[in-house]
Amino acid sequence: MSEIRPRRSDATRAAILDAARARFAADGYERATVRAIAGQAGIDPSMVIRYFGSKEELFARVVDVALDLPDPAAIAPDEVGRVLVAHFLDLWERDAVLVTLLRVGVTSPAGAERLRGVFRDQLVPAAERFGHDPADAPRRATLVASQILGMALVRYVLRFGPAAEMSRADVVAWLAPTVERYVTAPEP
């Protein structure tokens, strides 16, 4: 029986994606060039375009983020904040793509648009499932995002001492009541 070897195109595609993740994380969207990505991948720049079409399409592929939010029906109302904050901390700590997306999102229109897309396509529908007026879900999701993205920015991107050094339990304890209020409280 012969061994199945990965196709060379698969290896090239993987090398491009790895190099793009590194360049976008280090340089941001605007300064990361197709030439630099190709150089890091050890290929000709035309191969990047061949496989991904454009820098914009490559960026969208690199920062393809699935928030995998927990099912609201499985969360007790008085645990919503704790569960959501812990879930987001798990995401930030295990997935460098989110840190890259946040870093690029605050410095580039393309990154900001991608971040808004994740918010619009994943966080707003989750907020709708918590049982409030669906018309109010975007506002509630925005408030949750303000807490989660704010902490992620100061903890994982800017690495402000107190936020970066705070224990996970302390982050959850401080943010959970606010996030829970945004999700479950009646409209003020």
Summarize the structure.
The protein has 188 residues and is mainly α.
Describe this protein's structure:
With 188 residues, the chain is mostly helical. It has 2 domains: 8-62, Homeodomain-like (Arc Repressor Mutant, subunit A, Orthogonal Bundle); 72-184, Tetracycline Repressor, domain 2, CATH 1.10.357. The protein is 72% helix and 0% strand. It is built from 10 helices and no strands. It has helices at residues 8-31, 34-41, 45-52, 55-62, 80-94, 96-105, 109-128, 137-157, 161-165, 168-184. The longest helix is centred in the N-terminal third of the chain and has 24 residues, at 8-31. The protein is elongated and about 55 Å long. The relative contact order is 0.11. The model has no long low-confidence stretch (mean pLDDT 88).
In the predicted model, the low-confidence regions spanning at least 5 consecutive residues are none
CATH class of the largest domain: Mainly Alpha
Order of helices and strands: HHHHHHHHHH
Q: What's the rounded overall pLDDT mean? A: 88
CATH domain topology of the largest domain: Tetracycline Repressor, domain 2
* Oligomeric state of shown chains: single chain
- Determine the number of helices (DSSP H or I, runs of at least 4 residues): 10
Domain module count: 2
What is the percent of helical residues?
A: over 70%
Using the CA coordinates, give the radius of gyration: 19 Å
- Principal-axes shape call: elongated
- In percent terms, what proportion of residues is strand? under 5%
Number of strands: 0
Major sheet details:
none
Distance between the termini: 69 Å
| CATH architecture call of the largest domain | Orthogonal Bundle
